[in-house]
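Quick one, T. Sequence first:
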Amino acid sequence: MGLDKAWPGIVKKMEGVEHDANPTQRKDGVNGINLYRANMLPRISSPRLRQTDVPVQLLVPTKDKFVTTALVESCYPYAHNVWRRDIDAQHWVVQSHSEWVANCVSEFVEFAETGRENPGLAKARVHV
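Structure tokens:
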């Protein structure tokens, strides 16, 4: 059995999250690994300072074993317009709290399109 077939069981065991297998699981995994290779490995050996003024929203599952809150906070010097929303969840927050993620994205898109911050989004603004 390949990792793609075993993946739903691995996620269930590690995170307690039900994750259905999908027909593109193997391709999705390979693409994800290739993104890390292309973006992270070259930057470790020769990092470049790049900054953006584009609005950035960080959805932070505070129990994430892979992307820690310290790692999230390390992006602050690179992004000047940051909104951060924490949730008591693990790495697979898209599966475990999909409605919360969708609401956060919807509110942020509305802000990006109109410039109006609703009260929840206004509280999430990080002043760095």
